[in-house]
Amino acid sequence: xxxxxxxxxxxxxxxxxxxxxxxxxxxxxxxxxxxxxxxxxxxxxxxxxxxxxxxxxxxxxxxxxxxxxxxxxxxxxxxxxxxxxxxxxxxxxxxxxxxxxxxxxxxxxxxxxxxxxxxxxxxxxxxxxxxxxxxxxxxxxxxxxxxxxxxxxxxxxxxxxxxxxxxxxxxxxxxxxxxxxxxxxxxxxxxxxxxxxxxxxxxxxxxxxxxxxxxxxxxxxxxxxxxxxxxxxxxxxxxxxxxxxxxxxxxxxxxxxxxxxxxxxxxxxxxxxxxxxxxxxxxxxxxxxxxxxxxxxxxxxxxxxxxxxxxxxxxxxxxxxxxxxxxxxxxxxxxxxxxxxxxxxxxxxxxxxxxxx
Length: 357
Ligand SMILES: NC(=O)c1ccc[n+]([C@@H]2O[C@H](COP(=O)([O-])OP(=O)(O)OC[C@H]3O[C@@H](n4cnc5c(N)ncnc54)[C@H](OP(=O)(O)O)[C@@H]3O)[C@@H](O)[C@H]2O)c1
Hints:
InterPro entries: ADH-like_C, ADH-like_N, ER, GroES-like_sf, NAD(P)-bd_dom_sf, Zinc_ADH-like. The chain has 357 residues and is α/β, with parallel strands linked by helices.
């Protein structure tokens, strides 16, 4: 008997226009069947939230999205049925769909973001083409694995740059204590880099500092970007008078100039976020620093399936655990509360929804 599923859908405030903001509606049980011979049916066990998922619900996301679409992009689950033409997966494999369904090797010129222009994963079961899914490292729980398809791969892409920047001994500046940032803290430390972390909250910084002390690695250094307006100078001071080699840039227009101030010569900035808004007023004079320091400013767009395979290989080889990256877990019927919790900004790391059946 084919399974049925429960699924959340957006219900736009202005009919047909999800950019107006939406409410989340949990649908009645509906049948789900595998009709495509190249697809797999996945029983979802965990979904992690990203800033973008809640931004869409609140109507403040800058990109077009499917009006009544299924939200969220990051799921981990088990294959329960395969199409007859599928060769790479078996029933029982632990898998995740990739975030950008068109990004197989990263050279594709268009995109299809899950939970945006196409249906996402906030459901008990989902069907995806097998080639748009990856197996995740066996040692991870579903909750940990659900942190990888967006936040994990974004952190990986920003740390790696285009030339494999993530190398032992480099110094990495990481902004904020959200999902992408905490994944980046984890990866940078495992790779043997020095980490300088910024936050608007001393409590959050202290919490991360203490958690990092539980690992047998050097301490991280921290700066409060809210109480210390000239935080770029403090970052350079903390690094012994030299700027940092890699930065995970989350503020965007509001922070980029200071991030450049915190860079070493030939440093690489991974431009991930735009949390500081769209005003360009703060960018005045930025280009002279870019040129003086021969900085590389690289836009980050999550990553491809190929990138995700490489990251998963690194996570498996290091048996990297991500339990301490998870701030809080919610149940499937608490999805709206989980989204509001993320929006409140109280979290440090990832917010995860368990999908028990
Ligand atoms: N380009 C990509 O491929 C990509 C992929 C994923 C996410 N993103 C973007 O990256 C950003 C972070 O995403 P996320 O899912 O990690 O979000 P998140 O979990 O909600 O974390 C956001 C955190 O960033 C910090 N923050 C807020 N405003 C800031 C500002 N003006 N300057 C510096 N830090 C600020 C805050 O940390 P504190 O409370 O510690 O200050 C906040 O908790 C978002 O803009 C998101 O849309 C981009």
